[in-house]
Amino acid sequence: MGDSRRRHAEELRALEVGIELGLTLIDTAEMYGSGGSEELVAEAIAGRRESVYVVSKVLPTNASRRGTIEACEQSLARLRTDYLDLYLLHWRGGYALEDTLDAFAELQQRGAIRHFGVSNFDCADLEEAWSLRHGTVIAANQVLYNLEERGIEWDLLPRCCERGVPIMAYSPLGSDSARLRKHATLATIAARHDATPSRIALAWLLRQPNVIVIPKASSEAHVRDNRAALDLTLTSDDLAEIDRAFPPPTAAEPLAML
Protein backbone atom coordinates (compact mmCIF):
# COMPACT_ATOMS: atom_id res chain seq x y z
CA MET A 1 0.00 0.00 0.00
CA GLY A 2 1.06 3.56 -0.63
CA ASP A 3 2.86 2.99 -3.92
CA SER A 4 0.05 4.08 -6.27
CA ARG A 5 -1.57 7.53 -6.27
CA ARG A 6 -4.42 6.03 -8.27
CA ARG A 7 -5.42 3.86 -5.29
CA HIS A 8 -4.63 6.44 -2.64
CA ALA A 9 -8.19 7.37 -1.69
CA GLU A 10 -9.34 3.74 -1.53
CA GLU A 11 -6.37 2.67 0.59
CA LEU A 12 -6.74 5.63 2.93
CA ARG A 13 -10.41 4.83 3.40
CA ALA A 14 -9.53 1.20 4.16
CA LEU A 15 -7.15 2.27 6.92
CA GLU A 16 -9.64 4.74 8.38
CA VAL A 17 -12.45 2.18 8.41
CA GLY A 18 -10.16 -0.36 10.06
CA ILE A 19 -9.38 2.06 12.87
CA GLU A 20 -13.07 2.87 13.29
CA LEU A 21 -13.80 -0.88 13.57
CA GLY A 22 -11.19 -1.29 16.31
CA LEU A 23 -8.43 -2.80 14.17
CA THR A 24 -5.92 -0.38 15.61
CA LEU A 25 -2.60 -2.18 15.04
CA ILE A 26 -1.15 -0.86 11.77
CA ASP A 27 1.91 -2.59 10.32
CA THR A 28 4.14 -0.78 7.85
CA ALA A 29 7.83 -0.53 6.91
CA GLU A 30 10.28 1.81 5.25
CA MET A 31 10.46 -0.69 2.36
CA TYR A 32 6.74 -0.64 1.51
CA GLY A 33 6.15 1.73 -1.35
CA SER A 34 9.65 3.16 -0.73
CA GLY A 35 8.22 5.04 2.23
CA GLY A 36 4.85 5.70 0.59
CA SER A 37 3.12 3.26 2.93
CA GLU A 38 4.31 5.17 6.00
CA GLU A 39 3.12 8.45 4.45
CA LEU A 40 -0.30 6.89 3.80
CA VAL A 41 -0.48 5.69 7.39
CA ALA A 42 0.38 9.20 8.57
CA GLU A 43 -2.76 10.51 6.89
CA ALA A 44 -4.93 7.76 8.38
CA ILE A 45 -3.75 8.30 11.95
CA ALA A 46 -3.69 12.11 11.91
CA GLY A 47 -5.53 13.41 14.96
CA ARG A 48 -5.82 9.98 16.57
CA ARG A 49 -2.23 8.84 17.10
CA GLU A 50 -2.84 7.76 20.70
CA SER A 51 -5.61 5.36 19.67
CA VAL A 52 -3.47 3.29 17.27
CA TYR A 53 -0.49 0.96 17.64
CA VAL A 54 2.01 1.66 14.86
CA VAL A 55 4.61 -0.91 13.80
CA SER A 56 7.39 -0.20 11.32
CA LYS A 57 10.58 -1.97 10.25
CA VAL A 58 14.16 -1.18 9.36
CA LEU A 59 15.70 -2.78 6.29
CA PRO A 60 18.73 -5.01 6.97
CA THR A 61 20.80 -2.82 4.64
CA ASN A 62 20.19 0.07 7.05
CA ALA A 63 20.55 -1.95 10.25
CA SER A 64 23.96 -0.79 11.48
CA ARG A 65 23.83 1.04 14.80
CA ARG A 66 23.91 4.49 13.20
CA GLY A 67 21.86 3.40 10.18
CA THR A 68 19.06 2.00 12.34
CA ILE A 69 18.74 5.27 14.23
CA GLU A 70 18.72 7.29 11.01
CA ALA A 71 16.17 4.95 9.40
CA CYS A 72 13.91 5.25 12.43
CA GLU A 73 14.13 9.05 12.35
CA GLN A 74 13.15 9.01 8.67
CA SER A 75 10.22 6.66 9.36
CA LEU A 76 9.02 8.94 12.16
CA ALA A 77 9.18 11.91 9.80
CA ARG A 78 7.14 10.11 7.14
CA LEU A 79 4.62 8.92 9.75
CA ARG A 80 4.45 12.40 11.25
CA THR A 81 4.78 11.06 14.78
CA ASP A 82 7.42 11.28 17.47
CA TYR A 83 7.36 7.62 18.44
CA LEU A 84 6.70 4.10 17.16
CA ASP A 85 4.91 1.54 19.31
CA LEU A 86 7.02 -1.28 17.86
CA TYR A 87 10.11 -1.23 15.64
CA LEU A 88 11.33 -4.41 13.96
CA LEU A 89 14.40 -5.59 12.07
CA HIS A 90 12.77 -6.66 8.79
CA TRP A 91 15.08 -9.65 8.32
CA ARG A 92 18.70 -10.48 9.07
CA GLY A 93 21.41 -8.97 6.91
CA GLY A 94 25.12 -8.30 7.04
CA TYR A 95 25.26 -6.06 10.09
CA ALA A 96 25.94 -7.50 13.53
CA LEU A 97 22.70 -8.24 15.33
CA GLU A 98 24.17 -6.77 18.50
CA ASP A 99 24.60 -3.39 16.78
CA THR A 100 20.97 -3.35 15.65
CA LEU A 101 19.74 -4.25 19.13
CA ASP A 102 21.98 -1.59 20.67
CA ALA A 103 20.42 0.96 18.32
CA PHE A 104 16.94 -0.22 19.26
CA ALA A 105 17.78 0.19 22.95
CA GLU A 106 19.09 3.71 22.33
CA LEU A 107 15.95 4.63 20.41
CA GLN A 108 13.85 3.22 23.23
CA GLN A 109 15.77 5.23 25.79
CA ARG A 110 15.18 8.37 23.73
CA GLY A 111 11.43 7.66 23.61
CA ALA A 112 11.46 7.24 19.82
CA ILE A 113 10.19 3.67 20.11
CA ARG A 114 8.23 1.98 22.87
CA HIS A 115 9.21 -1.61 22.03
CA PHE A 116 11.42 -3.43 19.54
CA GLY A 117 11.51 -6.84 17.94
CA VAL A 118 12.45 -8.88 14.91
CA SER A 119 10.95 -10.34 11.75
CA ASN A 120 11.70 -13.52 9.81
CA PHE A 121 13.78 -14.97 12.67
CA ASP A 122 13.93 -18.73 13.12
CA CYS A 123 14.75 -20.47 16.40
CA ALA A 124 18.52 -20.22 15.93
CA ASP A 125 18.27 -16.50 15.16
CA LEU A 126 16.14 -15.91 18.24
CA GLU A 127 18.40 -17.91 20.52
CA GLU A 128 21.31 -15.78 19.33
CA ALA A 129 19.34 -12.59 19.86
CA TRP A 130 18.23 -13.66 23.36
CA SER A 131 21.88 -14.21 24.30
CA LEU A 132 22.77 -10.58 23.51
CA ARG A 133 22.69 -7.58 25.83
CA HIS A 134 19.32 -6.20 24.73
CA GLY A 135 17.85 -9.34 23.22
CA THR A 136 15.90 -10.45 26.29
CA VAL A 137 13.29 -7.73 25.77
CA ILE A 138 12.43 -8.58 22.16
CA ALA A 139 8.71 -7.90 22.02
CA ALA A 140 7.62 -9.80 18.89
CA ASN A 141 8.72 -11.94 15.96
CA GLN A 142 6.89 -11.29 12.69
CA VAL A 143 6.91 -14.34 10.42
CA LEU A 144 5.04 -15.95 7.56
CA TYR A 145 2.26 -18.07 9.06
CA ASN A 146 -0.94 -19.30 7.46
CA LEU A 147 -2.76 -22.53 6.67
CA GLU A 148 -0.38 -23.30 3.81
CA GLU A 149 2.74 -22.48 5.86
CA ARG A 150 2.49 -24.17 9.27
CA GLY A 151 6.17 -25.02 9.75
CA ILE A 152 6.61 -22.70 12.74
CA GLU A 153 4.26 -24.90 14.77
CA TRP A 154 7.01 -27.52 15.12
CA ASP A 155 9.50 -25.44 17.10
CA LEU A 156 9.37 -21.67 16.60
CA LEU A 157 5.82 -21.06 17.80
CA PRO A 158 6.20 -23.19 20.97
CA ARG A 159 9.55 -21.58 21.77
CA CYS A 160 8.13 -18.08 21.39
CA CYS A 161 5.20 -19.05 23.60
CA GLU A 162 7.62 -20.27 26.26
CA ARG A 163 9.44 -16.93 26.18
CA GLY A 164 6.25 -14.86 26.04
CA VAL A 165 7.14 -13.44 22.62
CA PRO A 166 4.07 -12.95 20.41
CA ILE A 167 4.12 -14.16 16.82
CA MET A 168 2.91 -11.63 14.26
CA ALA A 169 1.54 -13.64 11.34
CA TYR A 170 2.12 -11.88 8.03
CA SER A 171 0.40 -13.01 4.81
CA PRO A 172 -2.19 -14.87 6.94
CA LEU A 173 -4.21 -15.61 3.81
CA GLY A 174 -1.25 -17.12 1.97
CA SER A 175 1.06 -15.83 -0.72
CA ASP A 176 -1.87 -16.18 -3.16
CA SER A 177 -4.99 -15.32 -1.17
CA ALA A 178 -7.21 -16.33 -4.10
CA ARG A 179 -6.09 -19.93 -3.63
CA LEU A 180 -7.36 -20.06 -0.04
CA ARG A 181 -10.53 -18.18 -0.93
CA LYS A 182 -11.36 -20.94 -3.41
CA HIS A 183 -10.29 -23.92 -1.27
CA ALA A 184 -13.09 -26.50 -1.09
CA THR A 185 -12.64 -27.33 2.61
CA LEU A 186 -12.64 -23.69 3.67
CA ALA A 187 -15.66 -23.02 1.47
CA THR A 188 -17.55 -25.89 3.12
CA ILE A 189 -16.74 -24.67 6.63
CA ALA A 190 -17.53 -21.09 5.64
CA ALA A 191 -20.97 -22.12 4.42
CA ARG A 192 -21.74 -23.66 7.81
CA HIS A 193 -20.86 -20.38 9.53
CA ASP A 194 -22.45 -18.09 6.93
CA ALA A 195 -18.98 -16.64 6.45
CA THR A 196 -16.27 -16.41 3.79
CA PRO A 197 -13.27 -18.75 3.39
CA SER A 198 -10.99 -15.81 4.22
CA ARG A 199 -12.71 -15.38 7.57
CA ILE A 200 -12.21 -19.06 8.32
CA ALA A 201 -8.48 -18.83 7.57
CA LEU A 202 -8.13 -15.77 9.79
CA ALA A 203 -10.24 -17.23 12.61
CA TRP A 204 -8.02 -20.31 12.59
CA LEU A 205 -5.03 -18.09 13.39
CA LEU A 206 -6.87 -15.77 15.76
CA ARG A 207 -7.93 -18.60 18.04
CA GLN A 208 -4.31 -18.81 19.26
CA PRO A 209 -3.60 -16.42 22.15
CA ASN A 210 0.07 -15.80 21.26
CA VAL A 211 -0.61 -14.95 17.60
CA ILE A 212 -1.27 -11.48 16.17
CA VAL A 213 -2.68 -11.46 12.64
CA ILE A 214 -1.85 -8.67 10.17
CA PRO A 215 -3.73 -9.22 6.91
CA LYS A 216 -3.27 -6.60 4.21
CA ALA A 217 -6.55 -4.86 3.44
CA SER A 218 -6.55 -2.17 0.78
CA SER A 219 -10.32 -1.82 0.36
CA GLU A 220 -13.17 -1.12 2.77
CA ALA A 221 -14.93 -4.38 1.85
CA HIS A 222 -11.78 -6.37 2.63
CA VAL A 223 -11.36 -4.62 5.98
CA ARG A 224 -14.94 -5.36 6.98
CA ASP A 225 -14.58 -9.01 6.00
CA ASN A 226 -11.38 -9.28 8.06
CA ARG A 227 -13.09 -7.69 11.07
CA ALA A 228 -15.89 -10.26 10.93
CA ALA A 229 -13.34 -13.03 11.56
CA LEU A 230 -13.06 -11.80 15.16
CA ASP A 231 -16.67 -12.84 15.79
CA LEU A 232 -16.24 -16.35 14.40
CA THR A 233 -15.56 -19.37 16.62
CA LEU A 234 -14.43 -22.58 14.95
CA THR A 235 -15.67 -25.90 16.32
CA SER A 236 -13.53 -28.96 17.03
CA ASP A 237 -14.98 -30.55 13.88
CA ASP A 238 -13.98 -27.48 11.86
CA LEU A 239 -10.44 -27.67 13.22
CA ALA A 240 -10.18 -31.38 12.47
CA GLU A 241 -11.29 -30.80 8.87
CA ILE A 242 -8.74 -28.02 8.51
CA ASP A 243 -5.95 -30.25 9.83
CA ARG A 244 -6.83 -32.91 7.27
CA ALA A 245 -6.77 -30.39 4.44
CA PHE A 246 -3.71 -28.49 5.73
CA PRO A 247 -1.65 -30.97 7.79
CA PRO A 248 0.54 -29.64 10.60
CA PRO A 249 4.30 -30.24 10.33
CA THR A 250 5.73 -33.61 11.33
CA ALA A 251 9.36 -32.45 11.50
CA ALA A 252 11.40 -29.28 11.64
CA GLU A 253 11.26 -27.18 8.47
CA PRO A 254 13.30 -24.20 7.26
CA LEU A 255 11.57 -20.92 8.05
CA ALA A 256 9.36 -19.90 5.14
CA MET A 257 9.65 -16.28 3.99
CA LEU A 258 8.16 -13.98 1.39
Can you tell me the residue ranges where pLDDT is under 50 for at least 5 consecutive residues?
none
The oligomerization state is single chain
Please state the CA-atom Rg, rounded to the nearest Å. 18 Å
**What is the number of beta strands?**
7
User: Helical proportion?
Assistant: 40-55%
User: How confident is the prediction overall: mean pLDDT?
Assistant: 96
| Largest sheet, spatial ordering of strands | 1-2-3-4-5-6-7
The major sheet is characterized as: 7 strands, parallel
The SSE string, one letter per element, is: HEHEHEHEHEHEHHHEHH
Which of globular, elongated, flat, extended, rod-shaped describes the shape?
Answer: globular
The computed structural class is: alpha/beta
Q: Roughly how many Å apart are the termini?
A: 16 Å
Strand content: 5-15%
Structure annotation, total helices: 11
Keywords for this structure?
43% helix; single chain; 7 strands; alpha/beta; 11 helices; 258 residues
SSE blueprint:
Elements (H helix, E strand, L loop, with lengths): L7 H13 L4 E3 L8 H10 L7 E6 L6 H15 L4 E6 L7 H14 L2 E7 L3 H8 L10 E4 L11 H8 L3 E4 L6 H5 L2 H9 L4 H10 L4 E4 L5 H9 L7 H10 L13
Parallel strand pairs: 1-2, 2-3, 3-4, 4-5, 5-6, 6-7
Q: Could you explain how this protein is built, in words?
A:
By secondary structure, the chain is an alpha/beta fold. 43% of the residues lie in helices and 13% in strands. It contains eleven helices and seven strands. It has a seven-stranded parallel β-sheet. α1 runs parallel beside α10 and α3 (65-79) packs across α4 (97-110). The protein starts with 7 loop residues before the first helix and ends in a 13-residue tail after the last helix. The relative contact order is 0.12.
